[in-house]
């Protein structure tokens, strides 16, 4: 079932009664986007639901857990959530509500609270994608997700642009923070960071991953916007053009890699650093 309303001011009340009386029990995948969700009590139960995607959905936690009536939330293995403070919600609420998640994607353009250290676990989580803006966020706090996910194999972080730049490691000469030695991540093999920059807390997170993850096989640091923005090496034409400020920050990020990251990369780790294309951005910049 696909329902798309292309008009910006379109209003439509979906007949939720279609899912009543067991009609929704066979539904395995539910994707809600750009809407309000206030179902009535007799909405039905999705006993077979294993994938849930919520993108810009006005929904309370009570509606999600009770009125949506997901049946047994232990069945849900893949979740995508896009909302304010999505990372904080995921860390504080999801381990108890959906403990069998295997794949989790959270997107937050307004993340106001750092991820707390908690004893709760995602025992089965293998794939984690976090996208949030780096305006004032402490990226090192994301170690909480690693500690909570002993089976985590792949981690991707997308640093979204904020209203102002985070504190650069070049502007704060104090020593890098480190986590206690007991923080080890025994299954993590693939790590990728898009829009990698000189933010000090991001450098601290990257150094922590290298120091605490023995199984790590590949670390990719992309100083550009990354996928889906085009690169001329992959498609005919021109790379996605970056403004001068972005090019300057990319150069700062490359210097960060040379100074702080490379010395910590072991011989068993493949380090990939993606830089702005020299052909499409031929005007060199300095900072």
UniProtKB/TrEMBL annotation:
Top-level taxon in the UniProt lineage: Eukaryota
InterPro entries: At1g61320/At1g61330-like, LRR_At1g61320_AtMIF1
Domain At1g61320/AtMIF1 LRR: start-end pairs: 63-278
Protein's UniProt name: At1g61320/AtMIF1 LRR domain-containing protein
